[in-house]
């Protein structure tokens, strides 16, 4: 069975998953956020098949999440770099990192820590805020249909998270 | 080719993806966050095959992201509800929703809006903060190896996001 496409779904989460939701893609992006740029480096670090890696990098480039340019020191090699659109994905990766550290911990402690690049100070992390700056828990938030909502979104907004 | 497993990777993002990174899973969770609980409702709303839906719900239940209990009004039906561990995934979905609305917009406007449940006021959204409460951009953040880091994580932390 084909895994199907979310491209026709009028939902921002589905549209994001259509671009970054394939198996391997978010780990490729994790490495791009760390500063990795070369095909061979991604391939070696991830232990991923070259066909899959090629396909994922091509999709990310077509979707303007990465740019692909010739490496300055080697005309046969290419460098993949995050665009502004790609850099804007960082809250997704940070949210996944925080969840994994908290809910699937390594008994020896944190595997990765996020720090401010300028100072090395640990960052506070990700937070969902109200308009007046309060931290919001999932039960305090509801998704409502916007002006571009379709029938599926209206259907979802009739439900309510049980408390 | 099998898509492979990230279970052996000592990385919090890989461990999160191992639990919620399969195709369809985050849309099932989107619906669970909206308050949907029944197999038939998920199946009808998502237009997903029953085999795939069964497999995804079973995985999410085994990973203690959802609980599965008999429906009070119909002994043959089951209800799937988010656990505390599952509710803690909400920043991932909100980050995906924000990215999709901004970078793959619908010309008619927002498809979904997040509001405070008590007041209906729009929320400010997701933010990555420093310890002293400043909003941080991707170039201001670095991932460094923690005490439980393995060789792969140390390797990644030798790179640096180009500015």
Walkthrough of the structure:
2 copies of one chain form a homodimer. With 163 residues, chain A is α+β, with helices and mostly antiparallel strands. Chain A has a domain at 12-87: Arc Repressor Mutant, subunit A. Helix content of chain A is 39%, strand content 20%. Chain A has 7 helices and 5 strands; from the N terminus they run ααααββααβββα. The first copy, chain A, has helices at 12-20, 25-34, 39-46, 50-62, 84-87, 90-103, 151-156; strands spanning 66-71, 74-82, 112-116, 123-130, 141-145. In chain A, strands 1-2 form a two-stranded antiparallel sheet. In chain A, a hairpin with a 2-residue loop joins β1 and β2. The longest helix of chain A has 14 residues, at 90-103. The interface between A and B is large, with 100 and 100 residues. β3 (112-116) of chain A pairs antiparallel with β5 (141-145) of chain B, so a sheet runs across the interface.
């Amino acid at each position: 069975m084909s895994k199907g496409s979310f491209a026709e779904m009028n939902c921002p989460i589905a549209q994001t998953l259509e671009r970054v939701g394939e198996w391997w893609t978010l780990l490729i992006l994790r490495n791009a956020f760390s500063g990795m740029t070369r095909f061979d480096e991604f391939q070696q670090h991830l232990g991923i098949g070259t066909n899959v890696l090629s396909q994922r990098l091509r999709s990310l480039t077509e979707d303007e999440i990465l740019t692909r340019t010739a490496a300055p020191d080697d005309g046969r090699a290419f460098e993949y770099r995050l665009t502004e659109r790609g850099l804007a994905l960082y809250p997704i990766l940070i949210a996944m990192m925080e969840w994994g550290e908290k809910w699937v911990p390594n008994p020896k402690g944190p595997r990765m820590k996020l720090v401010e690049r300028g100072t090395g100070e640990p960052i506070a992390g990700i937070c969902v805020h109200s308009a007046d700056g309060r931290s919001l828990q999932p039960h305090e938030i509801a998704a409502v249909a916007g002006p571009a909502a379709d029938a599926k979104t209206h259907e979802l907004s009739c439900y309510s998270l049980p408390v």
